[in-house]
Amino acid sequence: MQKILIVEDEKAIAGVLQNILSDELPDYEISIAADGLEGYKLIEKDDFALVISDIKMPKLSGTELLRQALTLKPETTFVMISGHADIDVAVDCLKDGAYDFISKPIDINRLITSVKNALDKEKLFNENRSLQKENVTLKKKVNKKYQMIGQSEGLKKIQDMINKVATSDARVLITGPNGAGKELVAHAIHAQSERSRGPMIEVNCAAIPSELIESELFGHVKGSFTGAIKDKQGKFELAHNGTIFLDEIGDMSLIAQAKVLRALQESKVSPVGSDKEVKVDVRVLAATNKDMTKEIEGGRFREDLYHRLSVIEIYVPPLDERKEDIQLLVEYFSKLISDETGSPIREFESKAIKALEAFSWTGNIRELRNVVERLIILGNNPVTAQDVSAFVRK
User: What is the pLDDT of residue 140?
Assistant: First the structure.
């Protein structure tokens, strides 16, 4: 049961307030302190949803109680009362953090209204704080799943860029070779953004046939083409209030590019076969392994769409440019595979790490993970350089 504290040196007034509030707020426990010092000691020991305090009291005044209590527990809500009130005292109390100020003789209706409003404010504050904690926990979980492992300068630059751009709604184009971790960058941006409680919808533009990409992105209505047996929402609409990640954007057809450009310009999409427009609020992240300058010069990608997508550009280097991260990546993948399979974590000898660092990783981090899994299955414990030579063909 939540508690309310009345700090009042006049016993008659304290008793009346206790009785009134007990009737009006049966779900709250109402306590009384006879002076400011006693009130402070109770606040030290316990948490109160609300403190109603007189100002003129022996031992410790209400204004001093207010200041000291809020220093100790800043979340405490105060309503101040006084028969010696003037505007300066009221203003000082409000400046010091009181929720409200009520003059004596007390208007009971005014007091009840103030108390209920103060408790509603306290309840809202606690709910908001709970949601913030939940959101932080959620972000930590998401970040852990998609965390980028390493301490190389290249990775530090990426993480710094993510921290800077995540809280904005700026569109980001993520470039780099296949398997380097572009998807991880996209997930990290979404997880640290204000949209993290909304959906993140991923679209692999290279995996969808060109004749279907428009329907996949913008949806379609029943009968709009052969096989359209019912209405379907597109990825942009599904990502409303969240993030859409257009992976391998360089493989998108020119027709689809024109539709995406219009969606970005107008924040609207039109399902295939429909003349209606659907408003969408999405953040667009895109990724490609292609040289976009050459794609534009070759007429395969629209320059105006490129500039729309690349407000911020983040380059993810290949593993060969950050080999100092290989040991940390091997340790991470070893634990990850152990968790997935329920097997003990496999150690790697330092010479085995050196052998892995000597390779050229054309498949980047994706290839390294596969190699670690192969060595865990086929190699010794700990994994040796001989295991690397035997089971990793280069």
Answer: 46
Task: Give the least confident one: 82-86, 198-202, 270-274.
Answer: 82-86
Give me the architecture of the 150-317 domain, per CATH: 3-Layer(aba) Sandwich (3.40)
Residue with tokens 């006049």: 10
Q: Find the angle CA(148)-CA(151)-CA(157) to the nearest 5 degrees.
A: 75
Q: Does domain 320-391 have CATH number 1.10.8.60?
A: yes
Q: In 10 A of CB 273, how many CB atoms?
A: 15
| Phi-psi group of 241: left, alpha or beta (phi > 0 → left; psi -120 to 50 → alpha; rest → beta) | left
Alpha-carbon distance 59 to 37, whole Å?
A: 6
Q: Which CATH number fits domain 2-127: 3.40.50.300, 3.20.20.70, 2.30.30.40, 3.40.50.2300?
A: 3.40.50.2300
Q: Provide the whole-model pTM.
A: 0.63
The C-alpha R_g of the chain, in whole angstroms, comes to 31
pLDDT in tens, 2-14: 899 999 998 999 9
The amino acid at residue 104 is K
